[in-house]
Design brief:
Helix content: over 70%
Strand content: under 5%
Number of helices: 6
Radius of gyration: 15 Å
Structural class: mainly alpha
Distance between the termini: 21 Å
Shape: elongated
Number of domains: 1
Number of strands: 0
């Protein structure tokens, strides 16, 4: 992959997760209406402080991707959040799944861009 294209996509992913991570603490992006099951599940995750942990991971991953420090490691960690976001939205809130799908696609592109860093891990 072209290094300039990868850099732009890496920074875009970093900004994306940084904004949504900060939103978990500052609440500057309003939530729309969620189906009842999705709201109940999200409320349970929030009350158990899981969303706080997800927000912290997103902020750290976003900063790491933007400054290109430990990006390969945090892209791997971020993949679990990306997959869970897509599964949450596709099963409980399909009308709002576009953002989660974009997150997953950008995360997969980041993993592909960092593939040389994973060679030893996968051998």
């Amino acid at each position: 992959m072209n290094s300039k294209v990868f850099m732009v996509l890496r920074i875009l992913l970093g900004l994306f997760v940084l904004v949504f991570g900060l939103n978990k603490f500052m609440h500057f992006i309003p939530f729309g209406e969620m189906p009842e099951q999705a709201g109940a599940y999200f409320a349970a995750l929030s009350s158990a402080k899981v969303m706080t942990l997800v927000g912290i991971i997103e902020i750290v991953a976003g900063l790491a991707l933007i400054v290109n420090k430990f990006g390969a490691l945090l892209s791997l960690i971020l993949m679990s959040i990306s997959v869970n976001a897509v599964l949450f939205h596709l099963t409980l809130d399909p009308a709002n799944s576009a953002g989660a799908i974009v997150l997953l696609v950008l995360n997969i592109i980041a993993l592909i861009g960092y593939k040389d860093k994973y060679k030893e891990l996968l051998s």
